[in-house]
Write a structure and sequence with these properties.
With 246 residues, this protein is α+β, with helices and mostly antiparallel strands. It is built from seven helices and seven strands, in the order αββααααββββαβα. Helices cover 48% and strands 15% of the residues.
């Protein structure tokens, strides 16, 4: 697993993205605004998801190795915006304190199969969650910014390892696809009867090129396939988007 970001970098960037998320919430004309990239949610719903989710992961990390996810502290989101901002900041601090106390190698529950079940892997995934949801908040207020390059480059790698790698059999003919970041990094993904996994450089059936930020936002469904620079057999990407492994 390539990870250019060290544990201290992950914690610093979680703090930084959390602050950027709060800045978008603070700047919003109304927290009742619909989030275009999460159409079932308002900004208030998104804020609640961020605060409650970080507390749950803080408790999960603090619990150490476990067979189930822990329940976060029940701290309902306040109604006033200033209090919501403080509530969000407290949730981030709770997560960062738990991660710092655990250290990168401590085991803990996680839902994925392709990345380690450690506090370090949780920190890595939490950074991506906060980065993408900060984009969601920013686009809602008309101030969308690309994900910072260092976060996005690690985000492509992290998504492929954590969210795509699986032992579930690929239900179509075997295929390889390539992702190319204009910042100079590439990844190759192989699908076959043994599941999905990253592989070394190869000739893919389909390739997707864009900035690392655009690649991450595509992977998380914030950009459509039609917005991306795709070459080769587009059906491979269409099948991946539609695939729901067991």
């Amino acid at each position: 697993m390539h990870n250019a970001l060290g544990f201290s970098d992950l914690l610093r960037l979680i703090d930084e993205r959390s602050a950027a998320f709060r800045a978008a919430i603070a700047a919003a004309p109304s927290l009742d605004a619909k989030v275009p990239t999460c159409p079932e949610w308002t900004l208030a719903d998104l804020a609640e998801h961020i605060g409650e989710g970080r507390r749950t992961w803080a408790a999960t990390v603090a619990a150490g190795p476990a067979s189930t996810k822990s329940t976060g502290r029940d701290v309902p989101m306040p109604r006033e915006r200033d209090e919501i901002l403080t509530w969000l900041e407290d949730a981030t601090r709770e997560l960062l304190d738990a991660l710092e106390a655990a250290g990168p190698d401590q085991g803990c529950w996680a839902w994925w199969t392709g990345s380690p079940h450690t506090a370090g892997a949780v920190a890595r995934h939490q950074l991506q969650q906060l980065a993408v949801h900060t984009y969601d908040a920013q686009i809602t207020i008309g101030a969308a910014e690309p994900l910072p390059v260092d976060i996005a480059l690690d985000g492509v790698d992290e998504f492929l390892q954590t969210c795509v790698t699986t032992d579930s059999a690929w239900p179509h003919e075997p295929a390889t696809m390539g992702y190319h970041a204009t910042e100079g990094r590439s990844w190759w993904l192989r699908f076959d009867e043994n599941g999905a996994r990253t592989v070394s450089e190869t000739t893919p059936a389909a390739e997707c090129t864009g900035t690392a930020s655009d690649l991450v936002l595509f992977m998380y469904g914030r950009h459509e396939l039609g917005e991306m620079d795709v070459r080769g057999d587009r059906r491979v990407f269409e099948r991946l988007i539609a695939w729901e492994p067991a």
